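Service request form, structural biology core

Requester: graduate student, group of Dr. S.
Request type: structure prediction, single chain
Budget code: on file
Notes: please return the result as structure tokens.

Sequence provided:
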Amino acid sequence: MIDVPWLVFVASGAICLGAGMMAWMKNPRSKAASIFLVSMMFIFVATSTGPLFPIVSPDNAGTARSLATACIVSILISETLLWMLAIVFPVERRLSFRPINLAGAAMLSILAVTVGLGLAFTDLDLSDPDRIRISTEARALVLTVAATSMMLAMILVLSVRAKASDVQWRSGTIYLAGLWVLAIGGTLFALGSFVDSGVGTSIEPLAQISLATGLAISGLIFAYSIASGQMVMTVSPATEASRSSEKATYRLLHRHVYLVEEEKPDFSFEIFSDILKGRCFDCSNDDAFPCESLECSACKLPCPCRTCTKYKSRPQGMVVTRQFPNDVREEHFLQTTPILWLSTVSGKDNMDPAKLNLLTDYLVNFMDRSHNGVVLVDGLEYLVTSNDFNRVLKAIDRWTECAMTSDCRLILSLDPRTFEKKELALLEKNKEVVRPDAKEKWQVIPERI
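Core staff response, request fulfilled:
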């Protein structure tokens, strides 16, 4: 006979796993989404094994102990990963595993210690011949790690409140809300673990319902928020090192889309790199001297970007291109700017042109999170070959709307010879058209230079 409580817990774990998969599919290159997915996977393992060992016959203590160990270790790993998620979410701190940095080494070490504690302290209480329970030490370990994880997650999220944008803070708030729902759902379960056996047995069914409900509601909160774009787990915008104290040569207005018509995207990259590496065109602090050879905390000189109240940061860029990313970085001296390569070859920084919805999610999330963003998309012709023109046009309209509402600048580079006259007219609509080879200088960029 199928055990009903087991099915309920598996269903709750499956909802959490679905939320994790959704986060990763929308942001496959995000450290936050990857950590979130792994934590949800271990929650699913815990919910699949936890309800089984109590119904195992006391004669099969070995099987029950294996199931209990899998459950406890999975719970500990998921709890640890959920607070570690706050290291890179909602504002990303430096975390690297290849090459490994201090934060990455600390994260792996803490996980190893957590697994070791779970293996060492997991044991069964076989004093009741009719009921198998986890030992008091193992239950205490789970609750201690859970309480510590909640505190650390809250501290890490609240500590970045001043640095977070509205979208980032909203995402962090939803993340904490999901954790609190999960914690509240497990309150009765925790209470039943430490009261005497008689009372504990009487509240156990209610505790199981409460825990399963908390898991399900928490998973639904995460899944809905991620699907609706309320909870964003994408790569944090990055700034390039300043080339000098000079202002940018070109001025592109925020909330504008520039369609650059050229055979090769040379002028588009020239504008893009100029904006990223120079001070803002309209910077009012002409006497400032930006120096990025030191950390800002060690520099006492006036900095126009550190004190800027208009944009809050230097320009943050992202590139989508058909050119090989390493060649782009070498030619245009781009070091920290994320570059997506439109290619059918699988890879960490590669984007299949047929997955237009995924590309749109990536661009929209980046523009929503950046304070002073500029995005360059090169390869519209290639997108049209992998998708029909109307689908690409709808995607570009979505990018345009997001650029206009998120205070960003969007540069689209295309070769006009590859489009029909009607298609080109549709692409030019509601955009600033830039023709680098135009004889009249005012036609090069429809704004002051």
